[in-house]
DNA sequence: AAAACAAGCAACCGCCTCTAA
DNA sequence: GTTAGAGGCGGTTGCTTGTTT
């Protein structure tokens, strides 16, 4: 893919907007295509998967999730790709999140162990370590967190959810009639000219050509202010079942619902 | 109030696998 | 059957924010 200049570092709102728009248009497979945001395809994919995907659940891991991570890790060990496998079992959580969580947990354990050794009287470290290598629920990493601490990203807020609008998909339907430059121009115009509240985006379902129905959000607010429906059963693609655990809905149909709820 | 430290998280890198030509 | 490019993954780094001294 020809790129003028590959940007690195933190993503801007403009870039996020473009990325969301293009995923809406082309689905989340054609990263080389989408990479026109002056980012590499890899970078685009990562940003989408770890940050912009509508099914993401933000905020702290729940005790249940933490327990599940420990359980699955004890079950699968460190065999690759365990981050992503575990992530698939945790709707709305990314492998990067799991990875970071695990890393933090390990660091805590290491520190506790150090402290324990220093004190040489505390029995805690050994029990903690065994809990990780064996199937053990005794560990409660959550205990180290402050009570009542809420993440800025926590879902479940009542900001309201904007229903998907019709009138989408004209562009997608006529995708073949537009050159890429036209599409880019349109998106650029929209992102620059409109400063109203964010509109919902219907995400390309990734499986049908007709699925390219979306309306470009006039403006992308800081992603941190986005609210996603925490009950949205997206993001689960269990290799064994391909079903959402909560809803029993097939993954594809979950994803095909495709409406991204973004609020400003 | 300021500095030092710690924790959390976003993003990049390099390697490996998959797929299409 | 081969090869190049794209995607996926785990590891790692560095910045930001929160906490402690």
UniProtKB/TrEMBL annotation:
Q: Which GO terms describe its cellular component?
A: nucleus
The record places domain Myb-like at 3-52, 53-106
UniProt keywords, alphabetically: DNA-binding, Nucleus, Repeat, Transcription, Transcription regulation
* UniProt feature, compositional bias: Basic and acidic residues: 139-149
DNA-binding among keywords: yes
GO molecular function ontology, one term from the record = DNA-binding transcription factor activity
| Ranges for region Disordered | 109-175
Q: Which Pfam families match?
A: Myb_DNA-binding
Q: Where in the cell is it found?
A: Nucleus
Composition skew (Low complexity), residue ranges = 120-134, 166-175
Transcription regulation found in the keyword field:
yes
Q: Which PROSITE patterns match?
A: HTH_MYB, MYB_LIKE
The HTH myb-type domain extends over 3-52, 53-110
Q: Which Gene3D superfamilies match?
A: Homeodomain-like (1.10.10.60)
Principal cellular location given in the protein's record: nucleus
Q: Which PANTHER family match?
A: MYB TRANSCRIPTION FACTOR-RELATED-RELATED, TRANSCRIPTION FACTOR MYB48
Q: What is this protein called?
A: MYB transcription factor MYB139
**Species name:** Glycine max
């Amino acid at each position: 893919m020809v790129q003028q200049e590959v940007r690195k570092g933190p993503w801007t709102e403009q870039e996020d907007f473009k990325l969301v728009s293009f995923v809406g248009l082309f689905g989340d497979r054609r990263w080389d295509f989408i990479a026109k945001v002056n980012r590499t395809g890899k970078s685009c994919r990562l940003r989408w998967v770890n940050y912009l995907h509508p099914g993401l659940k933000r905020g702290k891991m729940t005790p249940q999730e933490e327990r599940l991570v420990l359980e699955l890790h004890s079950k699968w060990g460190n065999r690759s790709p365990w981050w992503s496998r575990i992530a698939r079992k945790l709707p709305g959580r990314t492998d990067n999140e799991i990875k970071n969580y695990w890393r933090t947990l390990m660091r805590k354990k290491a520190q506790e162990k150090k402290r324990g050794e220093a004190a040489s009287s505390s029995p805690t470290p050994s029990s903690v370590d065994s809990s990780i290598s064996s199937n053990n629920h005794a560990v409660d990493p959550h205990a180290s967190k402050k009570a009542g601490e809420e993440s800025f990203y926590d879902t479940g807020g009542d900001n309201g959810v904007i229903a998907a609008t019709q009138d989408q998909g004209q562009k997608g339907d006529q995708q073949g009639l537009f050159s890429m430059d036209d599409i880019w121009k349109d998106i650029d115009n929209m992102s620059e000219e409109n400063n109203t509240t964010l509109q919902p985006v219907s995400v390309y379902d990734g499986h049908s050509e007709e699925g390219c129905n979306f309306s470009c959000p006039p403006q992308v607010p800081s992603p941190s202010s986005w609210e996603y429906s925490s009950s949205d059963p997206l993001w689960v693609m269990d290799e064994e079942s391909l079903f959402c655990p909560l809803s029993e809905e097939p993954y594809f149909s979950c994803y095909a619902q495709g409406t991204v709820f973004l609020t400003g």
